[in-house]
Amino acid sequence: MSLAPSQSAAMKPSKGKLPISVVTIIICSFAFIALLYTDTSRSLFKLKSCPRRNPVKKSKDRTAEDNLKNFQMDDRFEFDPEECTVNTGKWMFNKTLKPLYTDRSCPYLDRQVSCVKNGRRDSAYRRWEWQPDDCTLPRFNPELALKKLRGKRLLFVGDSLQRGQWQSFVCLVEWIIPEDKKSMKEVGSHSVFRAKEYDATIEFYWAPFLIESNTDHHIIADPKKRILKVDSIDKHAKHWGGVDFLVFNTYVWWMSGIRLKTLWGSFANGEEGYEELDTPVAYKIGLKTWANWIDSNINPNKTRVFFTTMSPTHTRSEDWNNTEGLKCFNETKPVLKKKYWGSGSDKRMMSVVASIGKKMKVPVTFINITQLSEYRIDAHASVYTETGGKLLTEEQRADPLHHADCIHWCLPGVPDTWNRIFLAYL
Fold it and tell me: Where does the Trichome birefringence-like C-terminal domain start and stop, copy by copy (predicted)?
């Protein structure tokens, strides 16, 4: 049966038009695609800001408060000690950089290294920042440091330069701790800073040669009268047990002459019978005694061992082509020549440390601060220091050739960078 023309027309869609159901489906599809594209584009093209570390407690010291951002750096660049060579790089001047403490805000600094308090007027030496060539060195985060030390003991062992690193570490963290939650105790050769809320201690033990000598406690000023007992370390080492992190150094005290008086056996038998050895030879025997003690007494599953390499001295201005200079006196900026190496760092001694470290059973992490510190002729205590327990007189300051201290560092200063590296390894 054929349909009437009117009925046939009603059944056919009009030319160029779509049924309402089809139109609805198409509109919904476009809406869904648009929504999907919008969400996707947000995730693809809108970069998320890097998360910041948790804020720390505010310090009463204005300088520290103004510089909390110093350690809230971009977290995208994680420090990898296996990939980063921290000792190659350059010092960059950063006029906005300020220390987290001052020698007035931190009560634990020796007067020997409190250069500003002792009259130093220039401040540029505190605004140079070490930048390794192949990585980003994290800023020192005091809250992170204390969290890593929670329930643990950190002990620095060595000479006055190691004491400077210890004081730097204490000053970098103590300002975020309430007054009634921290303490300092000194007994003989052993000093202990305690962060009570963290049940953590940051300690220092004085042993300038690491091994025993006749000048450990009652210092003998004349190097010719000093005698090293190169095969004995137990007198000191008995204080190093039960520590979670051990940080050693020894160098500058060995550099008192080309030969050193050494002794085997007990001082109880007198100080006669010593033998004079070339300094690198005596150094090697002494470090072997230290290494043997570490390998025999330290459980690497419970204790991590670090060794800070030699801190350079800057007593010969001809090294950096300042023929009219007086040691490090009045130097106001670092040496900028790449790989500069002066006469204050003995590579023979450096190689002794490296060779012994390679043979040890207990792994030792070396905090390699020598090259980066070599550049810093501007950062020593110079004439802004003390000698014999007394500040230099005006007459002594006027004679830097005989009185400028180009061994120790002003604090805040270069040892703060050593501790940035140490914390990154920690």
Answer: 137-424
pLDDT per position as a tens digit, 302-350: 999 999 999 999 999 999 999 999 999 999 999 999 999 999 999 999 9
Find out whether 172 and 145 touch, Cβ atoms under 8 Å: yes
Which residue in 229, 360, 358, 247 sits closest to 293, CA to CA? 360
Catalytic positions, written as ranges: 160, 405, 408
Q: Are residues 367 and 421 in contact, defined by beta-carbon separation less than 8 angstroms?
A: yes
